[in-house]
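Predict the 3D structure for this chain.
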Amino acid sequence: MDEGLKVCIVGATGLVGRTMLQVLEEHAFPVSELLPVGSERSIGTDVYFKGEALEVLSMESALAKMPQVALFSAGGSVSEEWAPRFAEAGTTVIDNSSAWRMNGDCPLVVPEVNGHAIQSHHRIIANPNCTTMQLVMALKPLHDLFQIKRGIVSTYQSVTGTGKAAIVQLEEERRGDVPSAPVYPHSIDMNCLPHCDVFVEDGFTREEMKVWHETQKILGDDSVSVTCTAVRVPVQGGHSESVYLEFERDFDLGQVRAALSNFPGVVVVDNPESNSYPMPLTAHGSDDVFVGRIRRDLAHPKGLHLWVVADNLRKGAATNTVQIARYLFDRGRWS
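Done. Predicted structure below.
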C-alpha cells in the first residue's frame, strides 16, 4: 500500500463534503487518491483538493476503485443503500447521516470521548448529530468526575445545519426578497424558530430526540437524561448551546474548569469581566469546542450551567469524520 489511503467522499459538492475536503488538506491526512462522489447532476463537475481539480464521480465508479475509507455525507437514504455495499467491498465507511447512529451493530463515535468503541470488525462507523457532538465533548470530562444525573439543553443552531438552501433563504430575506425556495415554514431572518427537524412523539422534534438517545449511546450510560429544545437562529456557521446539568456528586468550579480545559479539543473561554465568552463568530473555522459562562446553579447545590459553542460544519460534522479516520489510521486499521 502507498503511504496514503484511497479516500472517497460521498456528497463532495455539499456544504459538509466541501468542508471535509478542506479538513483533509488542513490536517495533512494521508491521501494517495481522492475520489469525490456527487449526485447525478454533479457528476462530471469539479471539486478541488490541494489545488487540483478532481472530477466528481458516480457512486458505482468510486466503488469500483475500492477505496480503503469512504466518508459519507449525502443523506440517510443514500447511506442506507450504499454504505453496506462499500462495507461489503472492504471499505471502512464513516457516515455523517442519521442512518446508522442508533444501529446496535455500528459504533457512534467522537474520538476524544469513545474512540475505543470501534472494534476491528466494524466497517460502518456513525458520526453523531452536530448538536450532540459538541455537547458530549463538554459532558464527558464532567460525567467522569461527577456523574451527570440530569441535563437540560437549549440550542441556538445555525442555518448551515440545514444546508445550502437555508443559507439562500436567509440571504434572500436579509435583502428583502421573497425566498425563491424556502426550507423553513417561517421567515428565519430577524426570527428564531423553535423547530429543528420534524416533530415526533410527545411534542419533541427529531433533532431533540437525537440529543437524548445519542448522548446515552456515546457516553455508554443509559442513566444520563438530557432533554433538549432545539432552536434555529439567523446565524451562518456555529451552533450554541445553553446547558444545565445536575450531578450525583458535589463539585468545585475550579475542578470543572480544570477538567474542561484538560480535555482534548475543548477550550475554556470564561471571563465575563472582559466580555470574554464563546460565540459563533469566534468559533467559526475552528475544530475546537468552546465552553464558557461556567457557574453554579442558584437553587440546586449540585447544579451547573455552561455555554457551549462549536462550528457545526467542522467539529460538528466534517472534522469529526476525518478525526475518526485518523484515529483508525494511527491504530493500524490499514497497515
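Residues 5-128+317-330 form a domain with the Rossmann fold fold (CATH 3.40.50.720).
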